[in-house]
Amino acid sequence: MSGETVLKTSDILPNVRYEIRGKLARRAHELARKGFEIVSLNIGNPALFGFRTPETMRRAIIENFEASEGYVHQKGIFPAREAVVMQQQARGVVGVSAEEVFIGNGVSELIDISLRALLNEGDEVLVPSPDYPLWSAAVNLNRGRAVHYPCRPENDFVPDPEEIAALITPRTRAVVVVNPNNPTGAVYPRQVLEAIAALAERRGLVVFSDEIYDQILYDGAQFVPMATLVHDTLCVTMAGLSKVYRACGYRVGWAVMSGKISAATEFFEAMELLASLRLCSNVAGQWAVQTALGGYQSIHELTAPGGRLYESRRVIVESTASNPFFKLKIPRGALYAFVGVDREKLPEFDDQAFALELLERKHVLVAPGVSFNVPYRDHFRITNLPDAVTLKTVFARMGELLAEYAARPATANTVVQAVGRFRN
Length: 424
Hints:
By secondary structure, this protein is α/β, with parallel strands linked by helices. It contains 14 helices and 13 strands. It has two domains: 13-51 and 301-423, Aspartate Aminotransferase, domain 1 (Alpha-Beta Complex); 55-294, Aspartate Aminotransferase, domain 2. The strands form three sheets. A seven-stranded mixed beta sheet has the order 2-8-7-6-5-3-4. Helix 3 (78-90) runs parallel beside helix 9 (283-294), helix 4 (106-118) runs parallel beside helix 5 (133-141) and helix 11 (308-322) runs parallel beside helix 13 (388-407).
């Protein structure tokens, strides 16, 4: 119809990216609908690979289902919040009560609420690069500006506090720490976290500590809770049931306020207002929190030698080491590996082009490194959730494709051209 008005979307959306579930994922869905069997390594969804939530958590929900039919307090049910407090106290965090705990529909909702409570137009938040892209997206959606501090491959993806300090301006309001890290699997040393905490305290920055993978550790890696180091500014610790307890669909996360909470009264009130506007988070899932945190921690069996997550990670480490085209900083935590490709051997390698051709020809879906706000194009992220046999098959397919790349004349690499059309 001529003259038809085009419905325009928000001007803020061009600054928002979440390619983990973007065009590549939609193409994978199209291929699956046509009957192709796709190995989806783009997201950390334990249920997709046969992991189950512990039985005791499922029973806790069933036994309290009748108590889940009405609204509850906007911060969450008391038993869940108190269980979070007890966990924090056991880790050495002081001065926290149930009043400083917010339960949300996953950590994702709490990231959005907390940034909305904090930011004004043009305020800056320091976010790691590579990042979990929801952090950058949420900063932009809430009128702020994400400023990325580098976590360089040559430094094992561990940030340099001096580089973070150099990015602080009068508009900087907060610094985000993701530890153990998604997408790299890095686990930050205590001295680095201490330096970041001291920097935040000197400059009056809020510390957002994303600790959703706090117990997923390998080979003796030590996790240091950020809240044990931050005392003279506000620290917001975020974690939940989705990864450690394999309960993504329950949509239960929490945010714990600690540190200099006496100076954050207005922020607390804003958080409670925003939590009230959505009435409350999913009630049924909250009944699993106390059982989860106070019960047997089965995650340690999965991450120990012989455990499924450990053995899948071992396949990734061995497969990258045996292929001359790959480079890998061995992940020490979380559920991912951020795999690099040797650009000296494959100078025309492009992460998004590779991901597209790998999907179309080998039916394997990975997340290109550019999805995680990095300035280079020679990495991609995979999850170690599949079993070892599946991952061996995946790396065989990847190896076949990279060998083809190496054999192609430079002018014959049409995939680079194809990905340009895909991006558009």
